[in-house]
Write a structure and sequence with these properties.
Blueprint lengths: L1 H10 L10 H11 L6 E5 L6 E3 L4 E5 H5 L3 H18 L3 H30 L4 H39 L7 H36 L8
Helix pairs in contact: 1-7, 2-4, 4-6, 4-7, 5-6, 6-7
């Protein structure tokens, strides 16, 4: 996240040659993509941009909605990429949407099960390892499915901004690429982290509980 904020800050300066804002770019991208049922709005906060497939709503931070920088247009186009995925029935996005519910429960397990075992003593180390491995496995798979969703949205953003002439070749295009690439790698880091937690809790199960646990 430090890397994302650093790159974003670097390219969230100046004005793109097209003079278009992130909000205007988002509206035009959706219109030219034949998507008419998505509302575009803005909210306070930094980098809270997201596409809500349940309510068909694209939310941009105020900096990106009103901004005319390569960073603002890159983020706006990325979120439009998710709206296009939704409209085109992009399979990994629908897999991720379907997994949100069970992943939420898995997050509760990894947060509260260790406390339950610590304060009650009702859960044996091996049983705890089993449930934690299952929960982390679910979160890890969710993050794995997220990778193609995010990389594809960034790919679509780069293409559509160039094709529609919103971003000029050279420094502007480079800024968009670096911002989106930095953001995408945070999802890679999240996947690697959850994979490590999954393997950590799976190890005592594979070794028959011989590894000592705290």
């Amino acid at each position: 996240m430090w890397r994302v904020k650093s790159v974003y800050k670097r390219y969230n300066q100046g004005v793109v040659r097209s003079g278009i804002t992130g909000g205007q770019a988002a509206a035009e991208i959706l219109r030219l993509s034949g998507i008419r049922n998505v509302d575009i709005t803005h909210a306070e906060g930094m980098l809270g941009d997201h596409y809500d497939p349940i309510h068909n709503r694209l939310v941009l931070s105020e900096a990106n909605y009103f901004g005319r920088t390569p960073a603002a247009l890159g983020v706006a186009a990325h979120e439009c990429g998710h709206a296009i995925q939704h409209a085109r029935a992009y399979a990994p996005l629908h897999w991720r949407m379907a997994a949100v519910g069970i992943t939420t429960y898995a997050n509760y397990v990894v947060m509260f099960l260790p406390l339950l075992g610590l304060f009650t003593g009702l859960i044996t180390p091996l049983t705890g390892a089993f449930f934690m491995a299952v929960a982390w496995g679910i979160i890890m798979l969710f993050n794995l499915v997220t990778l193609p969703v995010e990389f594809d949205a960034s790919r679509r953003a780069k293409v559509v901004l160039a094709d529609f002439g919103f971003i000029a070749p050279g420094e502007e295009a480079t800024g968009v690429k670096k911002v989106l690439d930095a953001a995408a790698w945070t999802y890679v880091a999240a996947f690697i982290t959850t994979l490590a937690y999954f393997l950590w809790h799976l190890l005592p199960l594979l070794s028959g509980g011989s590894r000592s646990r705290d």
